[in-house]
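Q: I have 343 residues here and want to know how they pack in 3D. Can you give me a structure?
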Amino acid sequence: MSIFPDGALPDTRPASARDKDYDAKEIAGVHHTTPFGHKKITRLTATVYSQEFTSSCVPHAFYTQLEYEKLVKPAPKGMSQLLTYRKRANFPNPGTAAVDAYNRIREGQSENNSAPVKKNHREAEANSLPYLKGSPLISDFEYFTINNYASVPSEVSRGKAITIFIYATEAEWSQEYVKIQTPNLSINDAYVRHAVCLVPQGDFKENATLWLTVHDSAAFGGRFLRYMDMDFFMKRGYFAAKVYGKNQGPTPPPPVTALPLVACEFKEQNRNVLNLQGYLIQKGLLESQYQTGYYGNLTAKALLEWQLLNYKQFNYVRPVREILSMDGKFFGPQSINVVTKDV
């Protein structure tokens, strides 16, 4: 972490607060949608597999998410995604975080049909079977956690499948419409601790209630399709993750077509701003999807950090204070001079 003199501190506000500062013009390629405006989904389009044939809801949910986004192919008919049992680790016990599931899937699941798999294995039997390594079932994938749960409906609304982890009573999770029936339930007292996949564009409004559509791997109540209200999700969710396949994740930084050698300022939208953003991306201070040519708060925040990192090269009486006073909203002659020295 960089330490700046004169009390210049990094922005430590939560992402939900910082996001309110950003202008939609700054985000390239984002399809802005109104959550809960879709029709209710009554049929699952990705393959439905019973957890009886996977013995782990976590890789099932991850794989289902990838299948919805057509990054993996459905497994052969009659087989589960994992093709064999693995030793199950219940959430949220120590050592069983989603990172563990991710690493184990990458190591590989056995694809050997002679593995000890049989129909109607009881869960206790499945849990006692060893984890069998083999060739990776999912060639490679990455994921990132979603810390701001309130943003999940927007992701779902624009066609993204999301893996979420919830806890509930069996009576709650057996319902078609999942709502809280047992207030103040703790995660340690919950019989159901489960990972499921939220269906893309499965957000809808019914009877003045906001719902998300769930693709499940465990037939609680005989259901693999159910609907979860937002109150339940916000109070009973404890982890959310977005998975993407190899080479399908965030795009690499675009090439810097030209050094930023022309002054520009806040709210401008032109080629000069595009060059400035490309330079900031190259320096690792701005994410590549924000090279839009529009000078908003995201660009200003990145520029301010760059100026503070290079404050000794600015010809100001009190460089840090004067840089802070501009709040990253002006890229002028002194900044251009620093850029030319950096070549």
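Q: Anything worth noting?
A: The first helix runs from residue 15 to 18. The radius of gyration is 24 Å.
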